[in-house]
């Protein structure tokens, strides 16, 4: 079982890794700005529950697949890069539905957010570190405790980024400002590719 000291250390790790910028937080902030908090809730819940499921799967031995087939690691990096660039393009070209009722842009759905966790480099890094460093055993109970704790700590963190984005929408009083904001968010998302090639 996890000791109290280890659990406290893990909780600090979970908070710091959840609150710092990454693909999920950048996308949630952009969505909060463009669509508002309420419309971003499915995206937000998909991130939270999707990452929890990823963490659980890593805890029960999913990474053994990568050990058996090392080439999958390189394929994974390339696929992640291409998809993140595509998402950055979507953010850069999105428009607020409140400012343009004819806009076809829409926030991530619950399922899309869940699936995204499987190609999110920061998410994999968080899951691998959380399990390898703070899980003292491979017992199912230990993995469930870590998964539940991380999920509960992560939720207010991603809510913060979404609400921050919604607050930014107050300053998006023109299409030009909104376009500039989206370009900045798209650029930051592309920059997270550094996590794939230099930190993974």
Describe what you observe in this structure.
The protein has helices at residues 4-19, 23-35, 37-59, 64-68, 71-92, 110-116, 121-134, 140-168, 175-191, 194-197. The chain has ten helices and no strands. 75% of the residues lie in helices and 0% in strands.
Multimerization state = single chain
- The rounded Rg comes to 18 Å
Number of strands: 0
- Termini distance? 29 Å
Q: What shape does the CA trace take?
A: globular
Total domains, how many?
A: 1
Largest sheet properties: none
Order of helices and strands: HHHHHHHHHH
The number of helices is 10
| Low-pLDDT sequence parts | 96-102
Integer average pLDDT = 84
Strand content: under 5%
Share of helical residues: over 70%
Overall structural class, as computed from helix and strand content, comes to mainly alpha
